[in-house]
Each structure stands twice: as structure tokens, then as C-alpha cells.
Amino acid sequence: MQIPAPFDYARATSVADALALLERHGPESRIVAGGHSLLPMMKLRLARPEWLIDINDLFELDFILRDGNQLRVGAMTRHTTLLESAEIAGLFPIFADAERVIADPVVRNRGTIGGSLCQGDPAEDLTTVCDVLRGEAVIRGPGGERTLAMSEFHKGPYETAVGQNELLCEIRFPIRPRSGSAYEKVERRVGDWAIVAAGAAVSLADDGTIDDVAIGLTAVGVSGTIAESEAVLRGEKPREDLFVEAGRLAALASNPIADQRGPIEYKRHLSDELTRRVLRSACARAAVSPSPTTQEG
Amino acid sequence: MTITVDHPANPAAGDADRPMGYGRIQRKEDPRFVRGKGHYVDDIVLPGMLHGAILRSPVAHARLVSIDTAAALAHPGVVAVITGQDLLGLNLAWAPTLSADVQAVLVTDKVRFQGQEVAFVVAEDRYAARDALELIEVEYDVLPAVVDARRALDPDAPVVRDEIEGRTDNHIFDWEAGDAVETDAIFASADVIVSQELVYPRSHPAPMETCGAVADFEPIDGTLTLYETSQAPHAHRTLFAIVAGIPEHKIRIVSPDIGGGFGNKVGIYPGYVLAVVGSIVTGKPVKWVEDRSENLMSTSFARDYIMQGEIAATKEGKILAVRTNVLADHGAFNATAQPTKYPAGFFHIFTGSYDLQAAHCTVTGVYTNKAPGGVAYACSFRVTEAVYLVERLVDTLAHQLEMDPAELRLKNFIKPEQFPYLNKTGWEYDSGDYERAMRLSMEIAGYDELRREQKEKRERGELMGIGISFFTETVGAGPRKHMDIVGLGMADGAELRIHPTGKAVVRISVQSQGQGHETTFAQIVAEEIGIPPEDIDVVHGDTDQTPFGLGTYGSRSTPVSGGAVALVARKVREKAKFIAAAMLETRPEDLEWEKGRWFVKGDPSVGKTIAEIAMGAHGTVTLPEGIDGNLDAEVTYDPPNLTFPFGAYICVVDVDPGTGHVTVRRFIAVDDCGTRINPMIIEGQVHGGLTDGVGMALMQIIEFDEAGNNLGGSFMDYLIPTAMEVPNWETGFTVTPSPHHPIGAKGIGESATVGSPPAIVNAIVDALSPLGVTHIDMPCTPARVWEAMQGRARPPV
Ligand SMILES: Cc1cc2nc3c(=O)[nH]c(=O)nc-3n(C[C@H](O)[C@H](O)[C@H](O)COP(=O)(O)OP(=O)(O)OC[C@H]3O[C@@H](n4cnc5c(N)ncnc54)[C@H](O)[C@@H]3O)c2cc1C
Questions:
Q1: C or N terminus of chain B, fewer CB within 10 Å?
Q2: DSSP secondary structure letter of residue A30
Q3: In this complex, is the C-beta atom of A190 within 8 Å of any C-beta atom belonging to chain B?
Q4: How many whole angstroms separate alpha carbon B795 and alpha carbon B305?
């Protein structure tokens, strides 16, 4: 049994209560959601919060809601819910692609999208998913609510724009017609963190050309999406040679480190290979994606 | 009157459902496990029990400058803090290992590996104990570490064991087997020689339950009760008597339910000794249970063999000879569990299943600044390494000769009529029919069809591989005249008692860690005396309750204790004949046995069942001279030879050409473990071992950085396989009983762990061969496979 350093514990009853508890217990208090990132760090004594503010009773943050041309996902939505949601599967197949390879069922039953994003682990998968879907983070704090683009949300490895006394409440995703998305990850074993993963989202214009595209890479030191690769594709009809070029540029943009998962050149190779793969499937999915009217129905 | 016991080999028992003996019956221990009612060391709670925690070194090699325990002692709830200096006073700072070396219980002079035990805190609860560890202040003077075994013998390498008088290097032993001159002569004139360096990297068995102990020293009468995660309770008791100076009759070792051992729980770890010291010092029971990282970083690892192998053959594919030089990394203390004469275990079996003309090996053991151990993870005393060596070499030869690897093996197998077969390192293989097993495996696999499929796929640029491994193991250590561990002969006892109503209890010296002893051993008794297995209780794991013996590892339970149990049951059966004769007022020689009863020859209606005889024995019947009034017996079984299980494994993999990711698509395992007692348990052992094999082949490695930091200290970094990585196992079997074993059984516990890694690696190399790949070392992670595909395969160490 691995034993964390001593800590105190409080259970929040609402978002307002959680914010008040954070305020009251000061800088050494931490939110716990699914606990699947925080508790392992505490057990290894890499994290030593003095207070845990448990937000697992905040069912108000556990939702998937279609709101006009946005999809709103509450921060306490569990990985399993994201994996199993038919609504999400229809709109953003990239979620199921990614969720299927995040950890294992036990972790997915508890871990949340909010916790994943706030943890900011460089190998964390949902960050790339939210980046390429051009999500927005809704954060509440003592000063009220603010909405940030993902590019402003991330501040580097293990750092986000969410202040110690703030709460990530939801993520909003724009819904676009004729769009498709995909994610692919290479891992040493099921449940392991990515060696490298790639995600892509595209939307097509009426003439079949690529209207918008976003490409992201996981675990190779890239923050945000990869503009160089995207530029190659925008305005063009999906084509293999363009995917190849986008892959090449993605590998150039990647900035991996060597570790037990693999050497730098392998990770660069995967950045290329996986970028091509996700572009192929995202474009294929976009081509058969239902028109906006049927989506509403 | 004398009771004679003969050793007839029982005929093979297949899958038949025979509730009075062998067959597929559910495990008697499972009701408690599936209901969560298993009782493990950590479930033990004694009145007034305290809790211990170990402070471990963060560095691999350092002089210990000072330890300040004052703040820890002052921490609320802390009862004692014990350091190496305290142990020096008790003469307990160093303890003997199972390999004639010593290991520090707590560091006194210098740290020799990361995670080594530095101090022990005893507190009222485990939280206080753990928190107090952080309050101990230790000053280390860090030294350069020797991490790479290949550099360990360099003249300028730091000396790990400079406390040993006169020691100026890291050399532990040189050992050899076979005939060097003969072998070199054959190599000198052979048509074809293939050489390959093969690394079997360090891995760790990582049993689900980590190691732990509860020590209860009773100061008034000086008795020690020690509950431990031990695969060898009796051997531990003797060693504790020697180490701690407590008289052996005052020590009771109890191994309750054990959550997996795989060799990890054979040795005596500092934590066990510290729990005992803690109990002596505080006068209260002390529990110590290590956490996962402690288990991975400080307890017995497995493998760590760097093998230079060579195989010689004629150009027609007749294998002539094998030779190898091995560098064995034993870590900071030589603490492997081996029979004394065999510092490289039974590595002799690198001659494999082939009729060779010569063979030779040398093994050099070295110290490094890494955790000690070396025999673990179902390796059958280094048989794993040996089998991997020869099975990879045979495949590289097949590749060189452009021969089908199955065909090459079939051409070179030892023939059934050659058994018993004396191999070139001096071991006598008991029995085998290798071709039959190989052909069965190929038939289940649809081998020719697989090759056809592979050809088609290759034309499309797909990477599919088919790998074969044919292994012969040597297990069941062992004959007392050759085999002992720290002077204790490797025999095992058994005691059988039939209660008056015909129910029985059999007491054995081996200790289950999940192998199903409570079922298997009941079935052996049932088969021999014909009462149902559910009427037979199997007692194990408590030195006060069981006869002496060396415990469970190296697949020795069935070969050794299984023999003991069969013989003790036969002794009872024989005794029952005399009692039945008295009850029937006839002569023993007029009686005939059928399963469960003695009856009068020629008049089957007149007889006595075992239950009736048991009641008779305890009743008022006048017993013949020399037969006392019970139906009990005991034996100690000294096996005449080892047993030699074998198997033919075929693995099919697909490799993603873009990512190097390997999928094990199919795995066919045909095993021959001689007589099959419970086929369901056998299959379970095989399934588990195959899964281990996938782990070793694809992902498992305990790596170190240059400073000696362990990079595999948690399940985040040290990967073990899940259900997702393994295919639906396809198993088959042949039965070639061991001629010298009382029931013809050979042991199955480690076959699949031993046999599967080479099949998987051979399949991966086969898949990559169109790219010119001839070898890849384990673990075949996507990155390492991809590097091999680029022509840059590199050893893991
Ligand atoms: C064995 C294992 C394997 C894993 N594999 C993967 C994988 O392959 N890919 C992957 O992406 N992830 C993986 N994870 C991580 C998993 O997805 C976690 O669940 C997730 O990263 C964190 O979610 P959580 O709800 O558990 O967060 P917690 O652990 O509860 O919290 C994480 C951090 O976020 C903060 N936080 C949580 N919620 C909020 C909020 N609403 N507002 C502000 N701050 C908040 C916490 O204070 C903490 O600092 C794995 C985890 C484990 C244990």
C-alpha cells in the first residue's frame, strides 16, 4: 500500500461551495475529480496538498448538452460517458477513438474530462482532442466566469490557465456541417500513455474542398495545433500526397524527447505516420458525414 | 512385517472426468478466493500489533556518512527506529543469502543499490511509520556506480563489494559445462556457423501480492511465530534459526494464502528479518508489508543474462554443436536461489531438444549496483535463459540455411527411442516424443496454411510472422546427492492420515502461491486410495503442521512433493491391506485392490473399503503384528532424477509496418508434462505462463540509468500484459510419462513462461525478415521493433 502524506478532506455541494472551500483552505487546497491523476501523485508523494476539495457530488457539471451549434460538455463528465455517448459519437468520432485508448475501464469510470485537461499531462489525450475540435474552456472563479480558447487554456506541461482558486466547469465545441475527426495512438500496451498520438478534425466546403482543418499531436512537445500542416490542406480537396506532406511537416514541428517509450527519431516518424492516418480517416468521415439538417433531426 | 512400496509409472490420464482421482475438477481453494475470503499476510491482525516501514536509499552507490533518527523517533506514534548500527550490535546487520553470499539487512557501510534498506521505523500504525521515514536524515557520499554488466570487470570499475576482505573486482564466479575442446573441434570443421548475441533483459515477476511479514516474538518462552509471504516455509525456518540464533523448535513459520510468487518469494528479504527484529525490540507483533515500488525495486528480479551464442551445423541442416559464453548480472549481492553446485542453475539445458555432438558453455557472474536476485519469474533455475538461447539460435540457423524452422527442428530432434538420453552437459533426459508434439502443434496451427497466408501477405507488403519454439525443461530439483540449497537437500516430505470415518488429511511441505495444490494433491491421494478429492484436506504452509521440505519453485511441487504424496498414499494403501485382511479374517496376499477397496481374490463381493478399513484400524479388530492402530503414514521423497517436460509452441504475429506495433494474433501451445492430474489446472498454468511470455517478449524490462536509478519502479513504467495483449490461447497436449516418477508426472508450472518468449521473438524476426532483420532483443516494444526495421536493432542493455 502506497501512503500519501497527511491531508484533510472536504466535499463540495455546489460549484459555489467548491469555490468557497478553495478560498477558505488556501493555496495548499486542491480539487479532486476522478482522482486518477492526483491520487497516484499523492501516493508517490509527488503532490502533497493539505486539503482535498472533492467535487464528485457536483452532478451539475456532469452533462453532455447540445445547445444550438455548440456541444457543451460538463467538466465532471467521465471518460466512460464520453466513450459511450451516441451524441458525441455522431458529432465527434474522435472522442470515441481517443477514449477507447485512454487507460482502462476502471480509470475511465472515474476519470473526468475536466481532470484530464487540468492535469495538463504532456501525454494526455483529451487535450489534443479538444484542441483540434477548437473547444473553449469555461472557467469559474471568485471573479466570475470566463471563457478561453484552448490555446489560452494551456500554459505548458502540467500548467493551465485555471487558477488555484478556480474551477473548470465545461468545454464547448462548435458543431460544423460536413465534418469529420479522428484520433490514433501508439502505445506500448493497452492502458499505457501514448508514445505518440495524433488527432485531426476537418470540415469540408460544399465543393468538397477542405474548409477548415486542425491537426494535433500528443506526447511530442507540441502545444496547440500544427499550422504548417494545416496550411497545406486548407482549400484543397483531400489527397494522399497532401496528407503525406502534412505528415512530413507535422514531424518537423514535433519536438519529442527520448525516453523509455522510444527515441526521438521514432517519435518523429510516428508524428508523420499518425498524422497521415488521422487525416485519411477524418476526411473519409467528413465525406460521409450527414448534412446539418439531418444532424438537427 | 515390512511394507514395500513399488514405483510403477501410472498410465497416462487424459481429460477423462474421474472424480475419484485425476481429471478436470474445480479447484477446492476457489470458493474462498472467489468470495474474497482468501487470507493473506496483510489480513493478519494480532493484538497490540505495530507496523514497520523501511527507509530506502535514493541512490545506487554511496558511502553512508550519517543517519539522524531523532526527529523520526519524536514523531507521534513511532515506537522504534532501527539502523544498521543497531543491527551490528545484535550481529544481524548481514544475513546469509541462498547462494553462499551475504546481504546487508540494513546498510552499515555503504549503499549498493537504489532502494536498498537503510533504516526501519516501527510505529503504532502504518501511516505514522511511513510519515516518520521522511524525518530520518541521512547523509550519503555518492560514489560512481557500476550499472553496465559488460563494464563490471573493467579494471577501473567501482568495486561493489569492497567490504569483502581482499576483493578488488566485481567477479562472482566462473562456471562451465560441456566439453570445450570437443565443441571447438566441431565448430572448426562445421559447414555452417551462426553467431548471435542474445540479451535476456532484467525483468521482475511482480506478483499481485507484494512481500510482507508479521513477526510475533514471545519474550517469555522465546518463541517466534512468523507469518510470511514465503514459497519455502521450512527452509526459511532453518535459515531463521541460523540467522537470528533462535532455536529451530521455537520458530513457527506460517505462509497463509499467497497472492502469486513466481520465485519472488523464495528468498529471505531484509524486511522479514526487520519485522522479527522489530518484534524482539518492541516486545509486540510487527507487521511489514512492502508497497509496489519497493517490490519492483528491491526484491528478486529475473534473468539479466547477456549470451553470446553460436550454433554449428552441416549445410544439410544437421545441427552439430552449440556453445555460448554468458555474462550474468547478479546485482549487488549474490542472492539467487540455486542448488549449491549450480551457480547458473540448470542452464545446462541450453542443448535443447536436439541430438548434438557437442556443447559447451561458460557463465561468468558479476556484481553491479542493482538489486540482488536472479532466479525468479518461473525460470526453472535459468532454464528460461537456456531455452531462449537455443531456440533463437536454431531459428537463426534456419534463416541462414533458408530452411523452414519446423523442418529444421524435426530433422534434429532426439528420437523417442534415444531416451533416456544423456545430453552433452551430462543430464539424463527422462522421456520424450518430440516429433509427436511438434506435429500436433503444427496441425492445430494449420502450419502450411499459415505459411501460405504469410506468402500472400508479404506480396502485399504486410508483415506477418510465424515463430516456433520447442523447449525441453529440466525441473523437479532434485536428487539429494546433487542438489541442496544452503546445505538442505531438495527432498520433500508428506504425511497422510485417514480419519476413522474415511476422510483424510495430507500434509505437504510445498507451498501453493496459486498453483492449486489443495486440489492437485487431493487428487493424487484420491487416485491412489480411491476416496473422493473433496474428502481429502491438503495442509500446507505451516511448519508446525507439515513435514520438512524445500518448498515450491522451479516447478518442483508435482515432481517432488507429488511423488511424496503418491508414495505416502501407496504406503497407506499397503497398510490397509493388512488391516483389511485382519478384518476379513484372511491373508493379505489373498486380497486384491480396486480403486477404493481391498477384496478377496475370486470373490469381489467380499471386501472392505478404505473408510471401513480406517474405522477398523481405529476400532477393536485385532491387528496383525507390527501394524499399529491407525491408517497413517509418512514419507520423504528423494527424486532419483529431474523430470524433463517439453512442448511445441507456435506463435503468429502481425506487425504494423508504419508503427512497429506487434499484435500476437495466435498462439498454439502443445505441452507434455507427463501424466496429467488436473487438466484444467494445467491449462490455467499454461495460460498464465503464456501471458507472462507475452509480457517478457513485448514489454517488460527493468532498466537503469547511468547512475543506477531504477527506471521500472512502478506499474506506470514497468508494464505487465493485460487481457488485451493476448490472443485466445490454443492449447493441446501429448502424454509421455516420466519413467522414474511415481505417477509419471513432470511438472507444468513454468513450461509456458520458459517456452513462449522465443516463439514470440522468432515470430517477430520472421515477420521482419523481408526487411533483412535477423535478430531483435526483448522487449519488442514498438520503438525497438521500428528501430530493427530501420536496420538499427540494438540490445536493451
Ligand atoms: C493507469 C492510468 C492510465 C492512464 N492512461 C491515460 C491515457 O492513456 N491517456 C490519458 O489521457 N489519460 C490517462 N490517464 C489519466 C486519466 O485519464 C485521468 O483520469 C485524468 O488525467 C484525470 O482526470 P481525473 O478526473 O481523474 O482528475 P484528478 O486526478 O481528480 O485531477 C487531476 C488534476 O486536475 C485538477 N482538477 C480536476 N478537475 C478539475 C476542475 N473541474 N477544475 C479545476 N481543476 C480540476 C485537480 O486538482 C488535479 O490537479 C491514466 C490514468 C491512470 C491511473
A1: N
A2: E
A3: yes
A4: 12
A247 interfaces chain B, CB cutoff of 8 Å: no
Give the tens place of pLDDT for each residue, A262-290: 999 999 999 999 999 999 999 999 999 87
pLDDT in tens, B352-406: 999 999 999 999 999 999 999 888 888 889 999 999 999 999 999 999 999 999 9
Cell of A31: 480539487
Spell out which residues of chain B touch residue A189, defining contact as CB-CB under 8 Å. 698-699, 719, 721-722, 724-725
- CA A28, A29, A31, A35 torsion: positive or negative? positive
Helix (H) or strand (E) holding A196: strand A196-204
Checking if the pLDDT of B6 tops 80, the result is: no
**CATH, residue A30:** 3.30.43.10
What is the arithmetic mean of pLDDT over B502-514? Answer: 96
H/E element, B452: helix B447-459
Instruction: Give mean pLDDT, residues B422-449.
Output: 98
**Mutation for testing the A interface, residue in B127, B659, B780 having most A CBs under 10 Å:** B659
The residue whose grid cell reads 503504532 is B124
CATH number for position A150 = 3.30.465.10
Q: What average pLDDT does the segment B330-344 reach? A: 93
B residues 112..131 contacting A (CB < 8 A): 126-127, 130-131
What does the pLDDT read at residue B103?
Answer: 96
B209 and B260 in contact (C-beta within 8 Å)?
yes
Q: What is the pTM of this model?
A: 0.96
Please tell me the total count of domains within chain A. Answer: 3
A262–chain B nearest CA distance, Å: 5
Whether pLDDT at B7 is above 90:
no
Query: Which amino acid does the sequence have at B55?
Result: L
CA atoms within 13 A on the CB side of B117: 30
Contact of B13 with B676, CB cutoff 8 Å? yes
pLDDT at B4: 43
Q: Answer yes or no: is pLDDT of B671 > 80.
A: yes
What is the pairing mode between strands B358-366 and B171-178? antiparallel
To test ligand 1's pocket by mutation, which of A28, A37, A59, A192 has the most ligand atoms within 8 angstroms of CB? A37
- Joined together, the cell numbers standing for residue B244 give 537470528
pLDDT category of residue B243 using cuts at 50, 70 and 90: confident
Which A residues, 60 through 89, put their C-beta within 8 Å of a C-beta on chain B? none
The domains located in chain B, with CATH, are 41-143+210-258+265-298 (3.90.1170.50), 301-477+641-789 (3.30.365.10), 492-637 (3.30.365.10)
CB contacts of B719 in chain A (<8 Å) are 188-189, 192
Nearest residue in B to A194, CA atom? B782
| Residue B19 pLDDT class (50, 70, 90 cuts) | low
Provide, rounded to the nearest whole percent, the portion of chain B with pLDDT above 70: 98
Same domain, A217 and A237: yes
This model of the complex carries an ipTM of 0.96
Distance from CA of B326 to the nearest CA of A (A): 26
Bond preceding residue B479 cis, omega within 30 of 0: no
Contact residues, A window 91-120, toward B, CB-based 8 Å cutoff? 104
What is d(CA B387, CA B788) in angstroms, rounded to the nearest whole number?
23
DSSP character at residue B357: S
Residue A219 beta carbon below 6 angstroms from any ligand 1 atom: no
User: A44 to chain B: which residues are within 8 Å by CB?
Assistant: 293, 714
Gap from CA of A74 to ligand 1 centroid (Å): 15
Instruction: Look at residues A163, A128, A131 and name the one whose alpha carbon lies nearest to residue A149.
Output: A131
Structural domain of residue A232, as residue ranges? Answer: 179-292
